[in-house]
Prior knowledge:
The complex is a heterodimer. Chain A is built from 9 helices and 10 strands. By secondary structure, chain A is α/β, with parallel strands linked by helices. In chain B, helix 3 packs parallel to helix 6, helix 4 runs antiparallel to helix 6 (140-179) and helix 6 crosses helix 8 (196-222).
Amino acid sequence: MEEYTGTAAPVIDIEDLYKSFGSLHVLRGVNLKVQKGENVVVLGRSGTGKSVLIKIIAGLLRQDKGKCLVLGEEVSTMNQRELRDIRQKIGFSFQNSALYDSMTVRENLEFPLVRNVPNLTRADIDEQVESVLDAVGLLQTINQVPSELSGGQRKRIGIARTLILKPEIMLYDEPTAGLDPITCLEINELINEVKEKYHTSSIIITHDLTCARATGDRIAMLLDGKFLKQGTFEEVFESDEPRIKSFYDYNFIQ
Amino acid sequence: MSAKKKEHVYTKGLDSAFLAVYNGYVFFLRFFREVFKGRMEFQEIIKQCYAIGNKSLLLIGMTGFITGMVFTKQSRPSLAEFGAVSWLPSLVAIAIVRALAALVTALISAGKIGSSIGAELGSMRVTEQIDAMEVSAVNPFKFLVVTRVLASTITIPILMFYCTAVSLMGAYLNVTLNEGTSFRAFFENAFEQITFLDIFTSLAKAIAYGFTIGIVGCYQGYNASKGTEGVGKAANSAVVISMFLIFIEEVIIVQVSNYFRN
């Protein structure tokens, strides 16, 4: 795996990004670069536009202004075919897992696989499904439906579903939200394992400092629609900026 | 005050009504664009056909049977006044084949299937399952909308023929209990006045209603917002709008068929 040098061409390159919803200005000139093999944590309070940022990267939303290059290509100008191609290289883990309720775990995992990889035999499909389920430690749930799974299991299956297409980039939206502390640690470990095993570059959206410290090579602090500070966990939280300090203290008290 | 006025071309309500019609039109066109594009989800279409048929079979059967029976019972006194009770099978058959069966099937389906499609897709939208399909490089419109619209367009005509048969059985039961008419005599008399145009018109209506129920349910669900409240709203609007459109289509198709009849 390539080490992060900070000088290679970034897999995600965001420059001066703006996004508003009516009169609500969510992103106001965001700049972010993610290098190959790097885990970047975007930290910030709820409603600061963290999820909007990764939805723009995945092409689910379109920015009003600015540049959003993924693997060297501008996402906002892509047609449906180009978007489909780039999305095969992006894994998106949703905050509420977004598992398909009407399908079993096996069907959830097969769904993107059979529609994106042509000419797979039944044995190939089974092998790949079992392999990713094994990677997230939930092979035993293969025939269960999402309603029978716990919150942590749903998160893991959600991650497994994105891994089945072997993405180059992972986008995690609040991976530890609503989970107990032990399950949070397990999810943090899983995020690091995914990086090691699948050689992914990731953006992890969270407001959980434990998750940020455990998974982030770099932290980017988003406040009022802009990145206030970027750097390692220590660099960011050694800052004298009062808003960063209050975010840290509040998390700590909680 | 003046800045506020500039926000809308006409009024807020009128603007959103025009926007809704435009968005519906774009959704309608997208269906025809997507239907022939890429991989066809045959398995999902069959699954949806089964779900739609299975869900409504009992209800449509019961409603159709009661409609046939009640319509026969209500028509008898008027015909008896002219000594024309023997025309009852023909009258009832014309009413059922030309109008009642298709309308009863469509209205029951709009309530049962339209709301279910609206709620299902609406809940998938608010729980980000549709977004999840999109980011998995799968076309959710093709998988969710095209399959459901095709399934309702295929299944509702079948349900309509089933409703016609059951309604005629209801009518027969009433006639045989009152007049002692035999099964063969009833149906010979009933089908005497039915023409190919009646059956064709009825089929055309059922196809139009099926498509309407599917596309309206999908549109409302696919564009649902505002969490669980949006899901309820999507289900409700799917029923109300599709029923309204069904009556408009009924008027248009009857006018067109009458043109050919004359």
